[in-house]
Amino acid sequence: MKFHAVIDVQLHPGIADPQGSTIERALPTLGFDGISGVRAGKSIHLDIEADDAASAEAQLGEVCEKFLTNPVIEDASITIVELAEAN
Amino acid sequence: MAAKVGVVRFPGTNCEFDTVEAIDALGGQGEILWHGDASLGDSDAVIIAGGFAHGDYLRPGAIARFSPIMDAVVAAANNGMPVIGICNGFQVLTEAGLLPGALQKNAGLKFINDWQILKVASTNSALTSAAEVGQELNIPINHFEGNYTCSPETLAELKANDQIVLTYVPNPNGSVGDIAGVCNAERNVVGLMPHPERASHALLGSTDGNVLLQSILDSVGAAV
């Protein structure tokens, strides 16, 4: 089976986020008030072949741990959607 | 016999020849090592030079750490060989798990290219043995992701074990504990963001980097 996955990578909550805080500081100067807690991460989209969703998630967990994130400073959350067969 | 220092070159590395030149000028023998090779040849020490290995894609060092030569670097480091990471090389060593912590975007999101005063915090490492504690060194920095970060527990451990070898005066990038360079617990693996090879000749404006590069050559003698 083929699955589509969206991997959301964010800095750990305790780690300072220079991008997020710069965005947050810019917002009031553009007239957007009342926005706080801005955190900027990255999202990685991919397709994966696996027996089932649990197996896809397990494989991607390992990919995140070894490669897509730096576990010292980042967390990943994985969202998986089953893709319809092409035929 | 001259100490042989292998200088690793990834696609995107750009400080390898400066580093070899600076090592040679001190009487060592610098040699470029290609990242795709699986061996360190007859190197007595290894420097992972600065630059933008693999374009810094994903994260600086994230792809470089899986290059074939890194298995040999990790094995040599675990055997006690001096392994030094300069700038991007520091990022590679943290990604490879040879050094604690991580380097993230500078506070203020500015790429910083400037002269920087460093203070030697410990002389008990392969990079600082020839220096003196408290000695101030004028050595350039040139980075966007040099903001050293680690958990409070790791920071406490680094302090307790005297693993912080160089600090910034003042702090240019938000690094925790003003950290410019750290070593591993065994003290043979050291990473630093500043570029000692760019402060290795009077014509460059400073020779303060030489005491660090000399320490690497000395540590080879000490290890043999």
How would you describe this structure to a colleague?
With 87 residues, chain A is an alpha+beta fold. In chain A, 32% of the residues lie in helices and 31% in strands. A 3-stranded antiparallel β-sheet of chain A has the order 2-1-3, covered by helices on one side. Chain A is elongated, with a radius of gyration of 17 Å. With 224 residues, chain B is α/β, with parallel strands linked by helices. Chain B has 5 helices and 11 strands. Chain B has helices at residues 16-25, 68-78, 88-95, 152-160, 210-223, and strands spanning 4-9, 29-34, 45-48, 83-86, 102-104, 112-120, 136-143, 147-149, 164-169, 179-183, 189-192. In chain B, the strands form 2 sheets. Chain B has a 9-stranded mixed β-sheet, with helices on both faces. Chain B has a two-stranded antiparallel sheet with strand order 5-8. In chain B, a hairpin with a 5-residue loop joins strand 10 (179-183) and strand 11 (189-192). Chain B is globular. The N and C termini of chain B lie close together (12 Å). At the A-B interface, helix 1 of A face loops of B.
Q: Give the proportion of residues in helices of chain A.
A: 25-40%
Helical run tally of chain A: 2
Proportion of β residues of chain B? 25-35%
The biggest beta sheet of chain B is recorded as: 9 strands, mixed
How much of the sequence lies in strands of chain A comes to 25-35%
Helix vs. strand class of chain A: alpha+beta
Shape of chain A: elongated
What is the mean predicted local confidence, pLDDT of chain B?
96
Q: Which percent range fits the helix content of chain B?
A: 10-25%
Secondary structural class of chain B: alpha/beta
Task: Give the total of beta strands of chain A.
Answer: 3
Estimate the global geometry of chain B from the Cα principal axes. globular
What is the arithmetic mean of pLDDT of chain A? 93
Give the low-confidence spans of chain B: none
Instruction: Supply Rg of chain A.
Output: 17 Å
Provide the spatial order of strands within the biggest beta sheet of chain B. Answer: 2-1-3-4-11-10-9-6-7
Helix/strand order of chain A: EHEHE
